[in-house]
Design goal:
This protein is α/β, with parallel strands linked by helices. The chain folds into 2 domains: 100 residues, Leucine Dehydrogenase, chain A, domain 1 (Rossmann fold), CATH 3.40.50.10860; 139 residues, 3-Layer(aba) Sandwich (Rossmann fold), CATH 3.40.50.720. Helix content is 33%, strand content 21%. It has a 6-stranded mixed β-sheet with strand order 2-1-3-5-6-4. The protein has a 6-stranded parallel β-sheet with strand order 9-8-7-10-11-12, with helices on both faces.
């Protein structure tokens, strides 16, 4: 909030829940938006470890002045199960990144990660239509991005994740809507990929290994990372040094702002 619009007893609350939360960028993007729109609301980060997520979300749901909950790593799949109602996108992807209090008091789950990612990718000139895409991560964000890429016309999608149950379940959900266009594996399948995407948390910490090896991509491929902080992840630095085109994580959040405004009725 600005000095002309301070937090008060009438301020509506939004929380972004994750573990960790030091890297979240949504408050810096959405709180100025609230101020510009004259909305008496504030978005704050809430650190919730996985074993405490149900209690934290349950408490937020019962707070009468909380209107929405944003969800970040690693809670997106678990958050879908904590809602009373779920969108078609959440049912397909098995994950949610936004929960909204409904007029009857129920909580409704939606996922804008995939829509935002594709909007950001297309806006930067990297249209996924007809592209061969390699995606690392079948978790909450990865599932949403996978569905959105296929909906946007990606020719072929390969998803790698070390968790066999997770990646096989995602392929089954995707095949129900886009049959035969998704392959899954434990290790990245990078041969011939036009676009390679990191949708894992690898890169949040300086010592993290690379989620995949950019040197195994064809020359001039697009390498995208959904991590927003740091902006220049090790993956993107390595890819740029090899001559690949890079796409930053902040584009995914920026691509979701319009959807959030509509979802939460912010005008």
């Amino acid at each position: 909030m600005t000095a002309n619009h301070p937090i008060s007893g009438t301020t509506r609350l939004y929380a972004v829940v994750g573990d960790p939360v030091a890297q979240v960028r949504s408050p810096a993007l959405l709180n100025p938006l609230f101020a510009r729109l004259g909305v008496d609301a504030v978005l704050v980060p809430v650190h919730a470890r996985p074993e405490h997520l149900g209690e934290v979300v349950g408490g937020l749901r019962r707070a009468g002045n909380v209107d929405g909950i944003f969800v970040t790593v690693p809670h997106k799949a678990a958050a879908a199960a904590l809602a009373d109602r779920r969108s078609r996108t959440v049912e397909i992807t098995g994950s949610a990144n936004a929960l909204r209090r409904e007029p009857d008091g129920a909580w409704y789950a939606e996922n804008f990660d995939g829509l935002g990612f594709v909007a950001g990718l297309t806006g930067a000139g990297h249209d996924p239509a007809g592209a061969r895409v390699a995606l690392a991560g079948a978790g909450g964000a990865g599932s949403a991005i996978a569905a959105a890429l296929l909906a946007a016309g990606a020719k072929r999608l390969s998803v790698c994740d070390p968790d066999a149950a997770k990646r096989d379940a995602l392929r089954a959900r995707l095949d129900a809507h886009w049959p035969g266009r998704t392959a899954v594996s434990a290790e990245p399948l990078l041969d011939g990929a036009d676009i390679a995407v990191n949708a894992t948390p690898l890169g949040l910490r300086a010592g993290d290994p690379l989620p995949f090896r950019p040197d195994r991509l064809p020359p001039g491929a697009v390498v995208a990372d959904i991590i927003m902080e740091p902006r220049e992840t090790r993956l993107l630095r390595t890819a740029a040094a090899l001559g690949h085109r890079v796409h930053y994580g902040i584009h995914m959040l920026e691509g979701q702002v319009g959807s959030y405004r509509a979802f939460y009725g912010l005008g």
